[in-house]
């Protein structure tokens, strides 16, 4: 087993193309071809986590937060980032992080928070735009089903709760093969008319290479005619934050107490309880104050996230309850996501969840 095998499994779920521009997700320390003895999963990579990996004989650390956000100009051990990276390199330990890309996908950080709260009717709070593309191709009608199947298996045609989505129209194509061609139909030098099906289907842009390869493998023509268009549509499956509903409304204070218990919060900072009951819940793992307006526009009763600043609590304007449960607390279940991804793909691989509590904030 190599590092790149684990990386591929994680990025199949959370492609790096979904990370925010400021982020530094991916393989941060180590070679992708390193043979791995096992993986240690954590939220933050600190010196104690690397020491734990050494003690347990594990040479891959999978974390949510990247240990390196900005370029390091020196490795003198003057801060915890430098010391952690140096310790990992000295012990040939690879470090991989999936951060905002894991925040943005179905089954990711915010979706896991919804699982913990038991929310139903979930939707992405802030879907991304310009992530979808449309493929249009022309196929001999007797081969259309084969090509469609190949495209769907490669990941095309996913729309919300539906898959295998396409639009198909019948028509007639013409072509004349020259003397060096090997035509699927017709003869060299003669104009040929072929009954064709125009197939249209959409796909997320990170799958373009996979989709095109599937098209070329399954299409019978020597020269494949196809077009790819970039779409401005929002992708409802990808984006930051989530919104959902409790199966039954709860008394607001009781809900806050339950929230504190479920997320093991030392404290919850919140705005005035201006609603008697909670039904519609918006949330975002990590630092999510930037999505408050989206939560308010969605008519949520409460918005749950972390790292709200003092003046940002005023932005609730008596229309929504803000519940700041803490950055670490909101993302703590991310470790379970990594564990589920890796063990599902590699059931016999040694995976451990770190026993180190890396939360830098304590409550008195």
How does this structure look, described?
With 364 residues, the chain is an alpha/beta fold. Helix content is 27%, strand content 29%. It contains eleven helices and 15 strands. The strands form three sheets. Strands 5-10-12-13-14-11 form a six-stranded mixed β-sheet. A five-stranded mixed β-sheet has the order 1-4-3-2-15, with helices on both faces. Strands 7-8-6-9 form a four-stranded antiparallel β-sheet. The chain starts with a helix and ends in an 11-residue tail after the last strand. The model has no long low-confidence stretch (mean pLDDT 96).
Strand content: 25-35%
The helix/strand order is HEEHEHEHHEEHEEHEEHEEHEEHHE
The neighbouring-strand order within the major sheet is: 5-10-12-13-14-11
What is the overall shape?
A: globular
Give the structural class: alpha/beta
Rg, nearest Å: 25 Å
Number of helices: 11
pLDDT < 50 runs, ≥5 residues: none
| Overall mean confidence score, pLDDT | 96
Largest sheet: 6 strands, mixed
Ends distance: 45 Å
Number of beta strands: 15
* Helix content range: 25-40%
